[in-house]
Design goal:
The chain is mainly α. It has one domain. The protein is built from 5 helices and no strands. The longest helix is centred in the last third of the chain and has 33 residues. The two termini are 18 Å apart.
């Protein structure tokens, strides 16, 4: 089954949302990069699709974490304030790590596609 870029990203985001309930996010982000790259048509198959899907998932996950507060004791929560510099650094580190994991998943998907389908990927 081969999909377009947008369709494969959306399908992998849905699968990633379901897998987040079962597994750790590091595995899920790499899996999203793999699935989104592997499902796209061979003409546009690139690890960049995996990086984009992983970044979108990480950004959605980051802002979802802002909405749901963590379970910490009240005496600690009242002493914690918002620090904008740490917020920006945390966002950038999250995006960098998601990009790296999406690249790894997309790269593995490209190599797996070439190995599984050598006759169709000769000109690819």
């Amino acid at each position: 089954m081969e999909f377009g870029e947008i369709s494969s990203i959306i399908i992998s985001l849905i699968l990633g949302g379901l897998l987040t309930l079962l597994f750790d996010n590091v595995f899920v982000i790499a899996f999203i990069g793999f699935i989104s790259t592997y499902m796209v048509r061979k003409e546009s198959k690139s690890f960049i699709i995996g990086v984009i899907a992983a970044l979108i998932f990480a950004i959605l996950n980051f802002f979802g974490g802002l909405i749901m507060p963590p379970n910490i004791p009240p005496y600690i929560a009242e002493n914690i304030g918002f620090d904008f510099a740490n917020f920006i650094i945390g966002f950038l580190v999250t995006c960098i790590l998601a990009g790296i994991l999406g690249f790894i998943g997309g790269f593995i998907a490209e190599k797996a596609y070439k190995r599984i389908n050598p006759e169709t990927s000769a000109d690819y």
